[in-house]
Amino acid sequence: MGHSPFTPGVVAGRQTAEALSDGFADLHPPLDDHEALVAADRCYFCHDAPCMTACPTDIDIPLFIRQISTGTPEAAARTILGQNILGGMCARVCPTETLCEEVCVREVAEGKPVEIGQLQRYATDTLQRQGVHPFERAASTGKTVAVVGAGPAGLACAHRLAMHGHDVVVFDARSKPGGLNEYGIAAYKSVDGFAQAEVEWLLKIGGIEMQYGKRFGADLSLEALKSEFDAVFLGIGLGGVNALGIDGDDKSGVRDAVDFIADLRQAGDLTELPVGRDVVVIGGGMTAVDAAVQAKLLGALNVTIAYRRGKDRMPASEFEQDLAASKGVRIVFNAVPKAVHGNGAVREIEFDYVSADMTPTGETLRLPADQVFRAIGQTLDADGLPELDGRKIKVTDAGRTSVDGVWAGGDCASGGDDLTVTAVAEGRDAAEDIHQTLTGAVR
Amino acid sequence: MADLTSDFVGIKSPNPFWLASAPPTDKEYNVRRAFEAGWGGVVWKTLGAEGPPVVNVNGPRYGAIWGADRRLLGLNNIELITDRPLETNLEEMARVKADYPDRALIASIMVPCEEAAWKAILPRVAETGADGIELNFGCPHGMSERGMGAAVGQVPEYIEMVTRWCKQYYDKPVIVKLTPNITDIRKPAEAARNGGADAVSLINTINSITSVNLDTMSPEPSIDGKGSHGGYCGPAVKPIAMSMVSEIARNPATHGLPISGIGGITTWRDAAEFITLGCGNVQVCTAAMTYGFKIVEEMISGLSQWMDEKGHESIADFCGAAVPNVTDWQYLNLNYIAKAEINQDDCIKCGRCYAACEDTSHQAISMSEDRTFEVIDEECVACNLCVNVCPVEGCITMVPMEPGTTDPRTNRPVEPNYANWTSHPNNPAAKAAE
């Protein structure tokens, strides 16, 4: 197409197909058998292991690693999936450096943790490659549950409910399942269509009907779902994106990072996906890093992440920051966007440099930009919801909302970090509570 | 799903994994926790006779050897039998057995080699409701100096005599625990069977000194500058234990005598191997002492998965399956000829196979300028050393030669028929092949 990283504007084809293929390859190539045994050998099988405590889904990590080391990765997978049915995706996208691996005694002692995420992937991939679904559905209870949202929370909830014998219908606004696993994660963290393959595998439990193109608020109402089903679980995620709220933020070229990431994940041919020459990402979380790194991989010449606070406050982990830096992304700290300049389309973005307490220092920064991505947090985007707690659905421990018979979990619900693994835990726990409520069964 | 339930000489347990008589089974607190963790049975720490209990040293009781990354490979101990009053142990055993009727609870006993001593303790053990007894004829340290433990186990006549007393005064299964500190394990096993034993268990620990402190010149573990040999156990002793188990399993005089396998069992695979060599169940100690009771979960999941993969529905399905394949050297097929083969795709060019073969074996591996290592079939005797020292599993394999092809080392054709040393022309005592 004749374009290069130097071509001005938002254009496609800045990189060759080969360069794109290399750039978007698996971030952490899977361990082979020998590598897995060597990695597993480093685990001390700690008592009351810190890694296990740090895992939002409470996976028995020492046990599954021991099962790998004794040649039974399939048993290891069962240990993992019994707690976290999306253990395969979590092995790929969990920020292990701030969860299990951060507290691994070997990280604390030596600065070199056991590679828990990679070992988890080794185990779950082994079982899923065999096409084995390790759980059986209990006899039908005759109870029906609506799950709204086919993201990590909804899928985990649906699977656990189906396992207990309930009939589940999962509704999703999009045309494919997976939620952020399918639409919201950097492509190099989940290659080869893994998100879809995992959902297909998960559905082998049976008893789950999927309905796509059904948006909560538009096609579905809480009242209707409540009357039709014995229970409702809301795992609708955060559909909205916070606005910049500054002059010129409606200029063309300014868009939501999540949309860019979704377009990229759904693109059949990355050589046809346009990206700016000078890209600026506003935000400091994983979404900001995912958008920035991918923009760079697509061939953007200059990519800058502008974060309003200091490095120590940045939500994206040290690992993510280093990843961005290694790909050539510049991270600017203590910069608050002030105005977007340009004539119709964005040309430049202007920042105030601020101090730690967010007071403007009087110094400013102007960056050339033909594309600006907003990654400053997402918001609930629906009406007719149960009572909110701040900007999320208010829930008690097991996901109970203010409305009887309605549970919620994942990013849309209060409490917990906005992580895939947290969503899985919340979906699972809500399912157990729903099961108990519907049948009187004690867990 | 495989059925892991175990019926060992009539003693039932939900799985074949018992904790051996040792520190982990010293008291009610531990045993309850072991059962909660999933262990199928427990052999209670050895009881002594009524009266003042034995005393233990107050310095280190254990010594160890380690592999790289400090993986514990061998452990030795100089701890004696229980140092708590007999009555306390018996009361606790009765309570635990009542609360865990589905688990096996075995009393290990070691009292002086006198009929009266055994006659006195057996009814008291019977009252606890324990499922059977294990006679500790194995401990090689301390108690053996007092004429008990291994001192009995080293004299087959004593084994037979005491076993007979036990069968006379106790009506539940009697398991005789054997010491490996002898030259021929078949003799004590035969004695146990002759005395009426329901089963044998082995191995107990091996006489050992784990290390010497080169500053103080004291063996470890060191008690105020002196050391005493201890009992060696852990992964390092497994090959010794398996050989002894197999000897008993294939000895016509003891074939079929139930065996409880002990010795370095650390994973499900170790357990499966012991069972294929004729063990009805297994006992574990060092692995639990190294990693905690939780390891039984891996043993259960692993054995269950393997049994499912192999289509074994119960432990009995593969118990003893490898025994017919344990034979004497003289019956090995001398017409079986293999050659080492190095997979060049897997080879990482470390050269360890070359060093081993060139320096210490048959000079059957060549090395090129670009570090390509290849087997010289004209020299290779298939000794397997290259396989054993290669750091890459599966990189070097032993490939059998097809009958009819010519072995380049001997220039003789590979014979299709089985022929062993007993009929070999070089054997002065050779008999004509049948």
Automatic annotation (TrEMBL), chain A:
SUPFAM superfamilies: alpha-helical ferredoxin (SSF46548), Nucleotide-binding domain (SSF51971). Residues 144-427 form the FAD/NAD(P)-binding domain. It comes from the Bacteria. Residues 24-131 form the Dihydroprymidine dehydrogenase domain. InterPro entries: DPD_II, FAD/NAD-bd_sf, FAD/NAD-binding_dom, Helical_ferredxn. One of its GO terms (molecular function) is iron-sulfur cluster binding. This is NAD(P)-dependent oxidoreductase.
From TrEMBL, chain B:
One of its GO terms (molecular function) is dihydropyrimidine dehydrogenase (NAD+) activity. NCBIfam families: PRK08318.1. It catalyses: 5,6-dihydrothymine + NAD(+) = thymine + NADH + H(+); 5,6-dihydrouracil + NAD(+) = uracil + NADH + H(+). Keywords: Iron, Iron-sulfur, Metal-binding, Oxidoreductase. This is dihydrouracil dehydrogenase (NAD(+)). Residues 338-370, 371-401 form the 4Fe-4S ferredoxin-type domain. It is an enzyme of class 1 (oxidoreductase). One of its GO terms (cellular component) is cytoplasm. Belongs to the dihydropyrimidine dehydrogenase family. The gene is preA. Heterotetramer of 2 PreA and 2 PreT subunits.
